[in-house]
């Protein structure tokens, strides 16, 4: 009976005999890799990570940057305001102490010693100009230094030129200067004809006397910086005849200071 009972399940023996001996996974695989083969199709193993150096950076707060900029701007504006106030106070003090006034100039006399047109159309001109310079200041002296230039013009043509002497003009001083001006103009036939026509039609000739002068100002006993001024005098004369005292019917001068 027992032998018959054991032979009732012949399929178990067949299964045991036909059981595969080859493993489903390679022998050298670890347990973590022994997963379901179906899952291996969708599984991507992670790549090994490389160690990278970590750089530690520090970003200061933006509020501190803004506050530093605001402080810098405020300090700069404050310094500028202080300088402006200090300069204004100094200038105001000097003005109240010395009461500066602009010098005055006038052309009092004009004599033409040469006004000749040569055969080759060159015009030679010599003027003797008397200029009066007045310093109305009580506590300010004026040093007239080198680099001056004075010239006489008819419209856009320079007739003659010269320079002022070097001298010192004291407080409330009036100085009369006799200045010789000489010049030569080429191809002057047209200029001479224009001057003759001007006298025939208007009876006078307009001239300009221009002065560029370098001076140094003396405040009390202190000699300070050098400045440059420009004087332009507009004259109206009756003629330009040689060896004659020219009558000046109108004269006006304007003074302009250049720092």
How would you describe this protein?
By secondary structure, this protein is α+β, with helices and mostly antiparallel strands. The chain has helices at 2-6, 10-17, 37-40, 62-98, 189-202, and strands at residues 104-117, 123-135, 140-144, 149-154, 157-162, 167-169, 173-185, 205-219, 222-237, 244-246, 248-258. Strands 3, 4, 5, 6, 8, 9 and 11 form a seven-stranded antiparallel beta sheet that branches. A hairpin with a 5-residue loop joins β1 and β2 (123-135). It is elongated. It starts with a helix and ends with a strand. 12% of the residues are buried.
Structural features:
single chain; 259 residues; alpha+beta; 5 helices; 11 strands
